Structures
1.
Amino acid sequence: KQEVTQIPAALSVPEGENLVLNCSFTDSAIYNLQWFRQDPGKGLTSLLLIQSSQREQTSGRLNASLDKSSGRSTLYIAASQPGDSATYLCAVMGYFGSGTKLNVKP
Amino acid sequence: ETGVTQTPRHLVMGMTNKKSLKCEQHLGHNAMYWYKQSAKKPLELMFVYSLEERVENNSVPSRFSPECPNSSHLFLHLHTLQPEDSALYLCASSQDRVGGRGTEAFFGQGTRLTVV
């Protein structure tokens, strides 16, 4: 069974900062990795899907990288905004980490 | 709107009640999933259906009973639940079972279940 770990568990930054969220997984035999955003009490919104053959994927201010051999992925958020405040979840083969709760202060 | 709809959005039930959660997807996907999200715990994958056949059951108690009558609908039947079963139950779908090439999972908004 895949074990997924996310660091840090929580992060509070001032608006405008660039930040990095980390995800690690135990079994590198994956096809893809997906990053989600979850607002309180809501469902999950897909942010980025990286195929195992890709090293990174970009959407707007978000950039996700994947190093399959080392079992790691990072989500880079550029020029953070208060609207980015949410919990960010990493999923591998349907298994999720505990998430990083992000608070961007105005 | 992700194309995955869950009803009801909120449910309060007693421990002796029987209720069902419903999930519907309009994306033409072949795989559907039930997840449980409790406070301060990671999402727990409960059940996976692929082409209407259950392909994964992650040690879920028998008081949770899934049903997938067709590729667009998924139910979770609940009976004699415990207070610790109170959680957000999330349904997801993907073109193929998660892990297949090109597979991206889409989630519904969840059902907030409270067992009293």
2.
Amino acid sequence: AQSVTQPDIHITVSEGASLELRCNYSYGATPYLFWYVQSPGQGLQLLLKYFSGDTLVQGIKGFEAEFKRSQSSFNLRKPSVHWSDAAEYFCAVASSGGSYIPTFGRGTSLIVHP
Amino acid sequence: DTGVSQNPRHKITKRGQNVTFRCDPISEHNRLYWYRQTLGQGPEFLTYFQNEAQLEKSRLLSDRFSAERPKGSFSTLEIQRTEQGDSAMYLCATTGQGISEQYFGPGTRLTVT
């Protein structure tokens, strides 16, 4: 069964600092990987996705993520955080065939200090 | 705007009452998914439709839960005899051009008192 671990429940950074949110997945074959962001009381917005090819993927809002098969990781990064980035971030893994039903991690809450 | 609307946005009900939520994609997307999200957790899959056919249901979807998608457009999720444990955010998602990526509505927050 597929699973996702986001080891950090909360991350606090200063505005303008760099950011890395960790995600480890468990899946037997090549997974489909996603990062979503959720603002309070809202649905999830897709930041970026990895299906195949280049292991460094670019997303919206200046985010990027790197797929490392050897480490079963798909960490999210941003070089300079803005106060508006404060939100909940979810990593998800889906099977690469069939139903594409994603399994989500429990999320990492990003707090941005001015 | 993801093109997915959900109504109502908030619902407070008493234990034992029935509730129904609605999900409306702007256009008729191929697949439609329902999730439940509790505080401090990621979304958990409940069920999904391809057009009007309900193809998969999670073991989380007890017999008190039923979902429909008539004509393959909007969908409804009904919970009968609500329990306090049903309090959660219920999210609907549809697929975009690629069926592997999903776009979420704003959710319906259910509070059972």
